[in-house]
């Protein structure tokens, strides 16, 4: 009798497990097939006239992404498309784009946002509002500023990449420029709203890859300074690179100085770098101690200086250190004159002295104009190469 009851219970458990397994195999009633998705890879936003936003979305074209199509064996046309609409707000413009697409917009692959200069000077707060509320939007998407319109950047010719957005993403990931993300802008709002991001440059040139046709190229330039979501100024290329030093993101870069012996150029390649920023308070005075270290290799030399002489090498290290220190101080002075704490010194002060920050944060920009910066730099030349002097000079001799 007990055996029969045990078998009955085991059968009931088996039915229950089978039923649960069948439930797990069921699909989602609201899912959208992958063939019905239009994947956004880039977003370009402009403010062409009062009360009007222009939104352009970049999409890859799956039917043109692979080769072997058609009689010629290759797909014709660009493997991407850009759709543009205008509206009284960014969501309205996007809704108009969605109405004209045969697929549903998917934000999961969007990693680049470009705003036109006019839009940046008007303010990007509505953009931040949209990206913060859209659940499928990645806040780690990089934001750049175009010197003209954002839509112009979408016309660039991606020579080494498949899509224009991949070119811009590589600029940020390789630290060629200051690559601020939407997340950085949103976090900056909690400590005053000041931020800095990369400024692009655009032009027309003949490209061999495009059979000598005039094509649009896009490169990196300086940086755009934002105060509470509004662009208020810029940094030149040297200032932008100083920002990379302050953020600890300067990697594999080159810099040059004039030789102290004959005034000829010596170029160095930065291999590693690190930076530290520490706040200090002394009575009514306060400021920040900034220390930067880097290891350099000699890349080329046109000078007759003896690179094997430790004393002369020390002179070069001092010149490199002074050059970097001057650039850092000049950049900080620019941000102070613009009253924008784009490198988040206020946040650093708040971490170390929370009570002092509570007293200052309401009027932080006024305090930031007066704070002192003590900058120390140490550049070490680790490798000089096998040649003692300039190779060309040795050959002539």
TrEMBL record:
Residues 221-385 form the Spore germination GerAC-like C-terminal domain. The keyword Signal applies. It is a lipid-anchor. Residues 31-201 form the Spore germination protein N-terminal domain. InterPro entries: GerAC_N, Spore_GerAC-like, Spore_GerAC-like_C, Spore_GerAC_C_sf. It is found in: Membrane. The keyword Signal applies. Keywords: Germination, Lipoprotein, Membrane, Palmitate, Signal. It comes from the Bacteria. Belongs to the GerABKC lipoprotein family. This is Ger(X)C family spore germination protein.
């Amino acid at each position: 009798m007990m055996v029969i009851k045990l078998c009955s219970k085991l059968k009931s458990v088996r039915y229950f497990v089978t039923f649960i397994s069948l439930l797990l195999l069921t699909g989602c009633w609201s899912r959208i097939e992958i063939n019905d998705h239009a994947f956004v890879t880039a977003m370009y936003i402009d403010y062409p006239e009062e009360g009007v936003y222009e939104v352009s979305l970049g999409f890859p074209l799956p039917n043109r992404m692979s080769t072997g199509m058609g009689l010629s064996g290759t797909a014709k046309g660009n493997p991407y498309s850009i759709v543009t609409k205008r509206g009284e707000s960014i969501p309205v413009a996007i809704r108009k784009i969605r109405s004209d697409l045969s697929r549903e917009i998917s934000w999961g692959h969007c990693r680049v946002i470009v705003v036109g200069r006019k839009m940046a000077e008007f303010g990007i707060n509505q953009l931040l509002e949209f990206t913060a509320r859209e659940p499928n939007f990645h806040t780690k998407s990089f934001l750049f500023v175009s010197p003209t319109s954002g839509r112009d950047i979408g016309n660039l010719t991606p020579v080494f990449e498949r899509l224009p957005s991949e070119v811009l993403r590589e600029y940020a990931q390789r630290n060629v420029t200051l690559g601020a993300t939407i997340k950085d802008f949103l976090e900056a709002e909690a400590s005053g709203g000041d931020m800095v991001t990369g400024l692009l440059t655009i032009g027309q040139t003949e490209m061999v890859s495009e059979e000598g046709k005039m094509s649009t190229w896009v490169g990196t330039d300086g940086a755009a300074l934002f105060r509470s979501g509004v662009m208020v100024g810029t940094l030149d290329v040297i200032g932008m690179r100083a920002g990379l030093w302050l953020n600890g993101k300067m990697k594999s870069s080159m810099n040059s100085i004039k030789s102290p012996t004959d005034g000829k150029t010596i170029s160095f390649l930065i291999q590693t770098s690190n930076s530290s920023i520490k706040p200090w308070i002394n009575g009514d005075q306060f400021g920040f101690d900034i220390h930067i270290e880097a290891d350099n290799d000699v890349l080329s030399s046109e000078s007759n200086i003896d690179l094997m002489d430790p004393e002369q090498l020390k002179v070069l290290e001092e010149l490199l250190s002074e050059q970097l220190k001057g650039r850092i101080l000049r950049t900080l002075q620019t941000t102070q004159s613009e009253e924008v704490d784009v490198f988040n010194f206020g946040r650093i002060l708040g971490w170390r002295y929370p009570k002092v920050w509570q007293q200052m944060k309401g009027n932080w920009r006024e305090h930031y104009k007066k704070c002192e910066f003590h900058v120390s730099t140490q550049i070490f030349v680790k490798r000089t190469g096998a040649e003692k002097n300039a190779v060309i000079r040795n050959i002539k001799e």
